[in-house]
Amino acid sequence: MEDKIAVKQRVLAEIESHKEEIIRIGEDIFRHPELGFKERRTSALVRENLDKLDIPCESGLAITGVKGRLSGREHNASVMIMGELDAVVCPLHPDADPESGAAHSCGHNSQIAALLGAATGLGAVRDLLDGDVVFTAVPAEEYVELEYRKRLQLDGKIEFFGGKQEFIRQGYFDDVDMGMMIHSHAGVTGRNFLIDCDSSGFIGKLIRFTGKEAHAGARPFDGINALNAACLALLAINSQRETFREKDRIRVHPIITKGGDLVNIVPADVRMETYVRGRSLFAIMDASEKVNRALKGCAYAIGAEVEVEETPGYLPLIQDPGISALFAKNAEKLLGEGSNIYGEELMGATDAGDVSCIMPFIHQSTGGYVGGAHSKDFFICDPEMAYVMPARVMALTAVDLLWDHAAEAKRIKESFKPRFTKDEYVKFWRDFREGKTAESF
Ligand SMILES: [Zn+2]
Ligand SMILES: [Zn+2]
C-alpha cells in the first residue's frame, strides 16, 4: 500500500520530467490568442494533449469547451481542475493576433498549461486515486465582444455570455463535486501564490428613456424631454451613494450613450448604460433596486417612459476554505514558508464567481508576471512559476482531496452550503433579465 507522500512524489516527478513540454504548451498558446467562444485552436490543443494522456474527453461543449475525466480506482468524489481558453482584446500587444487584436494579456494561457501539467502528473497515479479528476477547459471568461455574443444568443448557441455560466446551464458541471483553478496576478513577479483574493460581482443595465419630440424653439411645451429625465436620474442615483456601505464596495458608473437626435428637437430617445458592482450578491441587488427606483421615479417626474434591460454579469467569488487550506499548504511546501500572500483583492470580476455559488471552488492567484492586466506590457517573466508551479500545487491538492476514500473531498462537500442549486442559478439570471429579481432573491 503506497503512502500519500510517495504518491505525491510520483506526481511531482512526472511533472518534472514533462516540465519543458508544459512550458512549451503555455508559450504556444500565448502566441496564438483567441477570443471567447472562438478558441478553436486552443481547444483542439487541449483535446490532443488529454488524448495523449489517455484521458477520455468530450469537446465542443458550449462551442469550444473541453472536458476530460481521469478515473481513479474508486469514484468517491469528482474534483475538477479548470482552465480558461480565451484571450482579451489588446491589439497593441506585441504578440497580439493581427486580425482579431486578441492577446493573452490576462494570462489564461498559463491556466491551460497548468491544467495539462496537472493532468500529466495525476495521470501517472490514476490507479491510486480514490476518486476522479475532471479537467475542464472553459470558453469565454472575458466579458467582451457583446455584439458577437448577442448573435450567438439569438442563434440559440448560448444563453449567457460567460463560458462557465454556459457550462453550468448546460449541465457540464452536474457530475463534478468541487473545483479549483489559478489565475495570473499581473505585476506579481515573484514565486508567490496569492491565496483567497476576493472579487466583486456585477450586473449591467441598458436604459432607454422615451419622451416626446417637439420643436425645441417653437413648441417645447408640447414635448417631453427624455434627456431631462435621464439627467435627473443621474442625480437621483448619486443621491443614493451615501447609502452604499464601504464593505459592500458598490460601484455604479452610468454613462449617457445617446443624448438626443437633433439639437432643435426636444430629445425623445435617450440611452444610458451602467454597471452595478459589489462585493456580495445581496449588496448588488440592493443597489440595483435603488438604481431602478431612481430611473423610474425620474421618468415619472418628467412624464417620460423608461425601459431597463437587465444584463446578467458575474457573481462575486466565494473561496472555499477547505480546498484553499490544502492548496495553500501544498504551495508553501514547494515554495517555502511565508511565500503565500493573503488579503489581496482581485481587480475585476470573473464567472468563476458563478461556479463558486454552486460548488466548493477556489480561484487562486499566481505570480510570475510583469506588466498590467489586459495591457500591452503584460508578459510571463517566470515560466516555471506561471505554468509549472500551479500544475504541481493543483495536482497535489487533488491527491489530498481524493486520498483515503476521498475523505477530505467528502468532508468539504458535506460542509458546503451552495448559494444556488444549478436550477436556482439559471432561474435567478432568467428572472433577473425579466426584472423579477426582487421577488426571487
Ligand atoms: Zn481578464
Ligand atoms: Zn482573466
Terminus-to-terminus distance: 50 Å
Task: Please identify the structural class as seen in this structure.
Answer: alpha+beta
Biggest β-sheet strands, sense, barrel: 8 strands, mixed
Number of strands: 17
Please tell me what the overall shape is.
Answer: elongated
What radius of gyration results from the CA coordinates? Answer: 24 Å
User: SSE order in H/E notation?
Assistant: HHHEEEEEHEHHEEEHEEEHEHEHEEEHHH
Number of helices: 13
User: Helix coverage percent of residues?
Assistant: 25-40%
Strand order in the sheet with the most strands: 1-2-6-3-7-15-8-14
The stretches of 5 or more residues where confidence is low (pLDDT under 50) are: none
Bound compounds, please?
A: zinc ion
- Strand % is 15-25%
Q: Could you tell me the mean pLDDT? A: 96
Salient structural properties:
elongated, 441 residues, eight-stranded mixed β-sheet, binds zinc ion, single chain
Describe the structure.
- This protein has 441 residues and is of the alpha+beta class.
- The protein is 40% helix and 20% strand.
- It has an eight-stranded mixed sheet with strand order 1-2-6-3-7-15-8-14, sandwiched between helices. Strands 9, 10, 11, 12 and 13 form a five-stranded antiparallel sheet that branches. Strands 4-5 form a two-stranded antiparallel ribbon.
- Helix 1 (4-17) packs antiparallel against helix 11 and helix 2 (19-31) runs antiparallel to helix 4 (108-123).
- The longest helix has 33 residues, at 383-415.
- The radius of gyration is 24 Å and the shape is elongated.
- Bound molecules: zinc ion (2 copies).
- The site of one zinc ion has 5 residues, from loops.
- Residues 106, 108, 141, 183 line the site of one zinc ion.
